[in-house]
Amino acid sequence: MAKRFMLLAAALCVALAMVFPAMAQDDATPSAQALAFLRSAQNEDGGFSNGFAPESDIAATADVVLTAVAAGEDPNAYLTGEMMNPLAFLGMQVAGGEAGSVGALAKVLSAVAAVGKDTAAFAGHDLTGDLLALQSEDGLFGMGAFEHCTAMIGLQNAGAALPDGAVAALLDLQDAEGGWGFMTGEAPDTNTTALCIQALAPTGEADAVDAGLAYLGGIQNEDGGWPYQNPSDFGTDSDTNSTALVIQALVAAGEDLAEWNNPQDWLAGMQLENGAFAYQAAFPDANLLATIAAIPALEEVPLNAWMPAPVAE
Question: What are phi and psi of 224, to 5 degrees?
Fold first, then answer.
């Protein structure tokens, strides 16, 4: 079985490299420097760690694919000494049944769509169909707004119609402050709210989007960045991951970043000399997830940037 997966991965590497056009990137740009740092941390299986354990992680690897494409690089070219790349790693996980959760499957769906591959035939799976099958009777995907919006964004990137009940279920989770919490019943946070704004922006739910933006505006820090939550028992200093997601939400909602105190300037200031990004000023070391998050935000590319343009009637 392992040999079969390795052969499948090798085939995916060759096929993806043939169909995905080479893209140029100025290696002096902040994004290119950050991507170079990420590539230096790539595992031999083609995947990337989430920073909490050394093994490659499905969600983090899918995010690296989106990050690379957002910055104009070809993730198929991220080959290791074992001739593995991120898409091959993801293909192995899908084929082996390791991408069965809503969050992991939705992220892989977005990654495959971003590189222009057929999401209905990736590693022997119809990713869209697999994800749609995970919607519950109440319209929700997963255990709360964060997973649900990740699924909505994956479906949007794949060009699939949102299923009945998906938007209504999300609107029901929005709280009186305009934000959304990570899990159902939790207090709102910037990360989940930013994700939900991106998911809702293409649906025409302007009131819900505006309410979400008002929540974000109410807890922006004076330095231009955002914390995870405010109030919070863990501090309210700006952090890279939260600020990056909010920037993507602002872009998705058509907001002028200058009217939001140019948060991209604070974000850019968190980059280190080695190209990586730190999570917070109080934690100045290189952080893998912060680096992955920062790049598309600096490029002003939202998470559902790969959804197909509407067909004119």
Answer: 100, -10
